[in-house]
Amino acid sequence: MDKLKAMKINGVEATKETILDGTYPLARPIFLYVSKKAVAEKPEVKDFLTFYLDNAIQLAEEVQMVPATQATIDASKAALTK
Q1: Distance of alpha carbon 29 from alpha carbon 68, whole angstroms
Q2: How many other C-beta atoms are found inside a 10 Å radius of the C-beta of residue 2?
Q3: pTM exceeds 0.90
Q4: Residues 41-76 pLDDT 10s
């Protein structure tokens, strides 16, 4: 299997810690954008987002990505129920 090796940028290694604290300059979060209307009118949209958030850490780690913090996931869950 081919592998991708992250390079140091300005002397900062790509580690879980530097990605989460924002010091690694090439790290970017992944966002899911959904309209309030879709969440309100389509239960499958809310069900998918709930599944995704409930499993976000495990899913990210399975594909060797750095997962969102639990605080970010909790805030997203709270926004979903508004």
Answers
A1: 8
A2: 3
A3: no
A4: 999 999 999 999 999 999 999 998 999 999 999 999
Element (DSSP H or E) covering residue 23:
none
Containing 8, the helix (H) or strand (E) segment is: none
CB 16 within 8 A of CB 57: no
Contact 66, 19 (CB under 8 A): yes
Residue 36 burial (C-beta neighbours within 10 Å; 0-12, 13-18, 19+): exposed
Query: By three-state DSSP, how is residue 44 classified?
Result: helix
Q: For 9-24, what is each residue's pLDDT tens digit?
A: 999 999 999 999 999 9
